[in-house]
Amino acid sequence: MQSIIDEIAEQMLLTEDKGKVATYIPQLARVDSNQFAITVALPSGEIFSAGCANTLFSIQSVSKVFTLTLALGKLGDYVWTRVGREPSGDPFNSIVQLEHEHGRPRNPFINAGAIAIADTIMQGHEPKETLAEIIQFIRFLSDDDSITIDEKVARSEQKTGARNTSLAYFMASFGHFENPVEKVLGTYFHHCSIAMNTVQLAKAGLFLANNGINPNSGTAIVSPKRAKRINALMLTCGHYDGSGEFAFRVGLPGKSGVGGGILAIAPGKASIAVWSPGLDPIGNSKLGTLALEILAAKTGWSVFGE
Ligand code: DON
What we know:
Layout: H1 2-14, E1 37-41, E2 47-51, E3 57-58, H2 63-75, H3 79-82, H4 96-100, H5 111-122, H6 127-142, E4 148-149, H7 151-159, H8 162-172, H9 181-192, E5 194-196, H10 198-204, H11 206-209, E6 213-214, E7 219-220, H12 224-237, H13 243-249, E8 254-256, E9 261-266, E10 270-275, H14 286-299
Antiparallel strand pairs: 1-2, 1-10, 3-5, 4-5, 6-7, 8-9, 9-10
The structure holds 6-diazenyl-5-OXO-L-norleucine.
């Protein structure tokens, strides 16, 4: 495994077209696109890394896997009254389907869906309390208490968050919101701004590769059935309107973020985190996807077979 990922990291550094960093969040536009990291975490506890696996990056929409998991834990099937389970086929920040579908976003991973999920998790609590819960959960999963929110990124998102603010108020106009819109947005912007490295992220995702059990602590985070379903949503919706292409090329459940991170799950085998800040036109990490495509081909880990 180490030699496979060393080779991938070397190949990525030599690849000329590394994609373009996200600029609509000014703080993300400052990140050097010439970086690559990969970590493969196995349920046995073994961890393999290559590239700058200790460098922190903004996990952005990858955080939506953890907020969905928390929401399902707190509220079970109620979650599905607020968001659907269908791929949207539209960009992550699209508003177009919301009116037709009466303010119930297609899935929990598009921005509108994740904002609705943030609302369900809050249950009347202040953003600070909810964020503390989200951070605690991620720290527990990663077995790493150093994980925090990058306040600069959060402020940067908030300042330029006109689209997300519009999505949230539009949904609220259908009467679905339980908490004040600005507080829900504050929670959403801040959980997207959690900073992690690939080692922490791969460890945090291990429960999804291990039937719901976090092998670090032996704790059942979710039931095997729920782990399977979260993986199903990651496969079908985790890369927005690039989900079909990701399934075609990589064949693994995966969740991307505009910070350039991707968490991919090989069920029963591994949790993989990759990071390279340059994005493709859809907003998914260009080299991250390529690296996972090569890794899946070399290991035969695609869920569709070798
Ligand atoms: O709301 C946003 O636009 C960002 N906080 C997250 C978007 C994102 O990561 C989309 N992923 N590829």
